[in-house]
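Example 3.
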Amino acid sequence: MKKRRLPEEAGIFMVLVAVLLVFSILSPNFRTLDNGFTLLVNGMVIGFLALGQTFVLLTGGIDLSTGANIAMSGVLVALIMQAGVPWPLAVLLALAAATTLGVVNGMLIHFVRIPPFIATFSTQGVALAIPLIITGANSIQVKDIGFSWIGQGRIAGIPLPILLLLVAAVIAALWLRMTRQGVHVYALGGNKNAARLAGVNIARTTILVYAISGFCGGMGGMIVTSRLMVGFPATGTGNELFYSIAAAVVGGISLFGGVGTVLGAMIGAVLIAAVSNGMNVLSVQSYWQSLVIGVIILVGVSFDTLRRSRSGRPVFAKKAPPGPPASPQLVTSATGKS
Amino acid sequence: MTGEGLLVDSISKSYGPTKALTNVSLRIRPGQVTALIGHNGAGKSTLLRSLSGAEVPDEGSIRIDGEAQEFHGPRDASDAGIACVYQELSLVDQLTVAQNIFLGQETVSGGLLSRREMNKTADRLCAEYGITARAGDLISSLPVAQRQMVEVVRAINQNAKYILLDEPTTALEQEQVDHLLGIIRRLTTEQGIGVLLVDHKLDEVFAVADHLIGLSGGQVVLDGSAAEVDRAAVIQAIVGDHGEGGPVDTAAVAAIVGDGVGETSLDDVETITEAARAREFGRPVLEASGISGNNLAGIDLTVHAGEILGIYGLVGSGRTRFLRTVYGAFPLASGSLRLLGEDYRPSSPAKAIKAGVAFLSEERKFDGFVPQMSSIENVVLPVLGKYIRAGVLRWRALKGSADDVLRQVTIRGEVSAPITSLSGGNQQKALFARATLQAPLLLLLDEPTKGVDIGAKREIYGVIRSLAQEKNVAVIVVSSEEEELTELADSIAVFRSGACDGVVYPRASVSAAQLRELAWADAAPTPAA
């Protein structure tokens, strides 16, 4: 008798299918398996950033430093390897540095009470400058061939970055849904004051989400450097940050916090990557890409804002809204749905 | 005469399947106070929102002096001379009194703001209506009562002909209430403004209203001159549709009606000694001594297992601060707390929860629940840690437990939908379910029935009693409604300007009027023990 509600991700998934179809019809090159992998591998950096961004956005924050973190960690890992450290250890050290940047963000936001936008805006500048200062703006060659495995290796024919993101996304989705700390992320983003009184550790949760975002930025840096086998201090200054926020937002992560799922953000990331790749394949001037992505962000945020202002009206809080009845499994699945 | 005033002509409004208003007709006459009475969910808010242009009715019309009006937004209504002062004030905290009064209608000369002139007018208006704030004061520096009056003054300054006041006295103390009622009277008699007053307190209504409108289940159930309608008829009308078979809760009705502060004396007030309480109830659960700092000035208080201890005091007397200090939400500056005889210094709500303390906030929306989450998720939020196996939440068990406690408090509504889909009373009951699930030693309740209708109030009293009597929980209830405490609490303590002397009055010995007197007694003439 109860009508099952379509998952919130269904809409964006349909948009993705439509975009893929249109590009496939327009270009025979687009619909090759090879291009599919190219699209996905290019999308993986955005995907990792979007994954980290998802955690931060869910708490109602924003992380503007993730793009810069690509450059910082990507150059750091190359430098550490240049100093003779074996690549697995170098990766761990660089990821630790990237995570530290996130921890610093979280501490600035929680303890110094700097608004997330300003705090991460500032650390973005710092993180961009560090590799330039260390290297004198020169790129650092990576000699350790083993390192190329991260960005260029394949397991069972599937490029490793895709597998890495897949594993990370599955862990993240399960973690948000199935652990106490995960539920606390949603509670913090939904109502910080109520969360605190319900026993949520605000400091730990805040710092944790920025740390995760920092770690994901570091993963992006590893993939970029490994694919180029060059630590390039000027990466991450381009569209990565922009695309990652776009991916999360079109994927249904509310910029106001408390609403959204990892699945949605990942579909969003693939969508953004597809749009970007499709336009490349069709040889559209690259200047158009930012414009298109910008419009996509605007549409996504507009939907979110409208949804929020509709449900935020006090009258609706007093009367039961005529919304569709909840599905029986809503407890486990509705954490982020409004 | 027929066309005069603000006439609401058989308007209806539905939200989905819910009919909020059905064929509501009423008239607000210029120069008169029309009081609108009804329990929560009766449709008062919807009516107000329709009149102020925030909501467009599905059917019916609104006329001013015979002229049909169509409000598509608040702007239309204010252009037509209707101003609405909601409970949540719409002032800009960071601006001054004068800037707020003139907001959107600033006096300009030659393209520049005439700041001096606006300040002068604002000061004159403030003086005229007995507001002590000055034009240059920031709104954020004013107490709530003053802000409310600034908002009324703003409406006057913007030439409102009709002013709608949504429960303006809830946050006020008696003296301020009298002041506000005085202003309302002057608005009508001197300015000829028509006032619609939404109010829960019949004392206030009968003191000021010329006309009474009773609303119940979205329909007008009472419409008459205040001189002709008596209290009994009003109560009958308000609680009329609440027939769930049960008798009307006398305390809840009394809380609305008030029994008037008579000439009382504190001579016959008895107190009860700690030893006697310890005999009557269980062991002491919380012992507070000398709690000070953060506007608290020395609080001594003990509550025992199975005891419902009421705390009475005026707004600002430190009741909420005390509860929040015990809950670890405010730091404990000095003094000592003991929980079951052991030292207790909660550094955060999380620590307090772990120690077995539960708390219900006065402001549900502000810090009570997470609006995006379902009732079930809100209920389990503080106890997630108890349902973990190998680091993973056992959602099935969590949902089962939540369902159990939610069933105990009989929630009406869908518990797996966002909690905001429930009515205020049901939201509050869900938060009680949360407290029940925490199985606390000590339950701290801050105004547990605020904004809750009479039916839900009765059920909430039942939940509190069963927690104390069956689960042996020590309960502290803070309430501004004297009748709530004399009905619900086993013992009552009184807070005065941040202090409590630990003197406790057994319920039977103290009347509502005496409580008020005790709270007002500044110098605290300790009654004969």
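Chain A has one domain: 10-15+43-301. The two ends of chain A are 22 Å apart (CA to CA).
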